[in-house]
């Protein structure tokens, strides 16, 4: 079984690869649409599950609150940026511009989680239950992917 830290890091590495893949795609190509979809669903579900299973534990302790609040606020900013991107044509130069901005911010967010938040969390939450939080995260993320897909379908039907 993996600890929550290993599980989150594995997700982050996948997201880093997807960001690089998207940056290599052109205009409204199928490659770009496919890579963006993979990224969008996985990151949305990751952030939601992270808040519910990991940050909730961290923020339950006073010493974890500053880091927790900071990350959750960034999730909201990143989410807004992704929704803005969903509204722009893939072929428009504005799309790539905004994507670059998102990539920069999201890479910074992951780096901060790994370098600043994880050490604090290891201290505050302690070693006990790290594998349990890891599996809770994975379970929650699966449910969350279904929810994000449902929401996207509803949007299409509107
Ligand atoms: Fe995050
Ligand atoms: Fe994360």
Q: Can you give a write-up of this model?
A:
This protein starts with a helix and ends with a helix. The protein has one domain. The chain has 158 residues and is mainly alpha-helical. It has five helices and no strands. Bound molecules: fe (ii) ion (2 copies). The site of one fe (ii) ion has 6 residues, from helix 2, helix 3 and helix 4. Residues 47, 50, 71, 75, 109, 113 line the site of one fe (ii) ion.
SSE order: HHHHH
Low-confidence regions: none
Apparent shape? globular
Counted beta strands: 0
Ends: how far apart?
Answer: 42 Å
Ligand catalogue = fe (ii) ion
Count of distinct structural domains: 1
Summarize the structure.
Helices cover 85% and strands 0% of the residues. By secondary structure, it is mainly α.
List keywords for this structure.
158 residues; binds fe (ii) ion; single chain; 5 helices; 85% helix; mainly alpha
Question: What topology emerges from the helices and strands here?
Answer:
Elements lengths: L3 H20 L6 H30 L5 H23 L5 H33 L4 H28 L1
Helix pairs in contact: 1-2, 1-4, 1-5, 2-3, 2-5, 3-4
Bound molecules: fe (ii) ion (2 copies).
